[in-house]
Specification:
The protein has about 475 residues and is of the alpha+beta class. The longest helix is centred in the middle third of the chain and has 32 residues. It has one domain: Cytochrome P450 (Cytochrome p450, Orthogonal Bundle). The protein has 16 helices and 13 strands. Its cofactor is heme. Belongs to the cytochrome P450 family. Keywords: Heme, Iron, Metal-binding, Monooxygenase, Oxidoreductase. One of its GO terms (molecular function) is oxidoreductase activity, acting on paired donors, with incorporation or reduction of molecular oxygen.
């Protein structure tokens, strides 16, 4: 790997071994930026990669030059299943297919009307999560927070998409689905020599393509079962558009486009983006709160004050819980679901005097920006108070905090994700106190998303209410 810093016609070069990037590239790039500055150009084999590690430079990429830099370089593992040709996550925003899939997603999933229509569903599934925690509390058993929140999120998403639960807390069914989704994200996000030397793609030296094919094969098999069932039901109705349910799959099958292959890949996008990132964000929030008991007590006190001793937890309007809102922002600052936002340059472009060459991959290191000491006081500390009384938001307008991206590539499911995570967190903090059976760590594992390396296990203690 070669590293360049280019300003106009003057350049200096340093060679960096590819092994220096390691298994946590967001951290390695952050360390390198201390030497080479907030805009670095790295040469991995044949691939030019530009790393952005300041909020000012991020604004240039995600806003000023968004029209030029909104493409994405698809990893070899993604190309191995042709996902790059049909996925809203990878195809270019200027294409008609991207606009169609994005419109379908926003209209039938993420519009304010659709989010409001599925409010009761979210409440029901989170109540089931609380019931599971209650049963674990009676047995004084530790709960795997990531797995439990994943099941809740998975069933919310599967009901929105298919009108059925796809998992239950007492079965091992969800583990296979969970493992497949994690596998997809790890295969897509893992450093792969074939991404830098395309002629190695067919050899699959690191097994990422094999892993992607295996994991997506399991998921597509599940999706095809639902598609076939819905299609058969539709063929028996006098009016094919008069469905007994009105879920996302019904809406897709009623459209002239897309075809079944497109639908399978779109469902893959929805599950991967919707389940894993939400459950991992909740796990990080709980981990930070358990590691900071005074902060947890403040969050619980606010919730008690807003809901009351014997109130019913409703889906919170996050603006009515300023401290909880600050907790979530602080969690996303320290643990963004996607630590490296990928973009691709369609033409040569200059950013603050630095040349970004055509076809270069650009990685906005939102993890490093969230810990920039020039922006944040005590950047490594979990301090939600830093957000109180401030308008800083996560919706792509404040470039020091862009965990969901910005511009045309901003995550369309952001409003739904915030509601799901907020409701789960409020419910768990209102209904239970928490104990740790073991010491807690904040070690990470890197895929496309950022996970705790070791699952958070905690014992729920039901609150006594009079």
């Amino acid at each position: 790997m070669e590293l360049y810093r280019i300003r106009h016609a003057t350049a200096w070069t340093s060679t960096v071994n590819i092994h220096q990037v390691g298994k946590l590239p967001h951290r390695s790039f952050s360390d390198l930026s201390r030497t080479y500055g907030p805009i670095m150009r790295l040469k991995f084999g044949r691939l030019n990669t530009v790393i952005i590690t300041s909020s000012e430079a991020a604004r240039e990429v995600l806003r000023t030059h968004d029209h030029i830099l909104s493409g994405r370089m698809s990893p070899n593992a993604v190309r191995s299943i042709n996902h790059h040709k049909v996925s809203v996550a990878w195809i270019h925003p200027s294409s008609a297919r991207w606009r169609l899939l994005r419109k379908l997603s926003v209209t039938h999933l993420f519009s304010p009307q659709r989010i409001e229509a599925t409010k009761a569903l979210r409440m029901k599934k989170v109540q089931e999560l609380v019931k599971f925690m209650d049963e674990s509390s009676k047995r004084e058993e530790a709960v795997d927070i990531s797995r439990a929140s994943f099941i809740a999120t998975l069933n919310i998403i599967s009901n929105i998409l298919f009108s059925v639960d796809i998992s239950s807390y007492g079965s091992g069914k969800s583990n296979g689905f969970h493992d497949s989704i994690i596998g997809v994200m790890e295969a897509a996000g893992s450093p792969d020599l074939a991404n830098f030397f395309p002629f190695l793609g067919a050899l699959d030296l690191q097994g990422t393509s094999k892993k992607m094919t295996l994991c997506t094969g399991k998921l597509f098999k599940v999706f095809r079962g639902f598609i076939d069932t819905k299609t058969a039901e539709k063929s028996l109705r006098k009016n094919p558009k008069e469905a007994s349910t009105s879920d996302f799959l019904d809406a897709l099958l009623d459209e002239a486009e897309p075809d079944n292959n497109d639908i399978e890949h779109l469902l893959l996008d929805m599950f991967v983006a919707g389940t894993d990132t939400s459950s991992s964000t909740l796990e990080w929030a709980m981990a930070e709160l358990l590691d900071n008991p005074i902060t947890m007590a403040k969050a619980q006190a606010e919730i008690e004050r807003m809901i009351g001793q014997d109130g019913l937890v409703q889906e919170p309007n996050i603006s009515e819980f300023p401290y909880l809102q600050a907790v979530l922002k602080e969690t996303l600052r320290l643990h963004p679901p996607v630590p490296l936002l990928p973009r691709k340059a369609e033409t040569d472009v200059e950013i603050f005097g630095y040349l970004v060459p055509k076809n270069a991959q650009i990685l906005v290191n939102v993890w490093a920006i969230g810990r920039d000491p020039d922006v944040w006081e005590n950047p490594a500390q979990f301090e939600p108070e830093r957000f109180l009384g401030k308008e800083t938001d996560v919706k792509g307008k404040d470039y020091e905090l862009t965990p969901f991206g910005a511009g045309r590539r901003i995550c369309p499911g952001l409003p739904l994700a915030v509601k799901m995570v907020s409701l789960m967190l409020v419910s768990l903090l209102y209904s239970f106190n928490w104990k740790l059976p073991n010491t807690i760590d904040m070690d990470e594992t890197f895929g496309i998303s950022l996970h705790k390396a070791n699952s958070l296990n905690a014992v729920p203690v039901k609150k006594n209410r009079h």
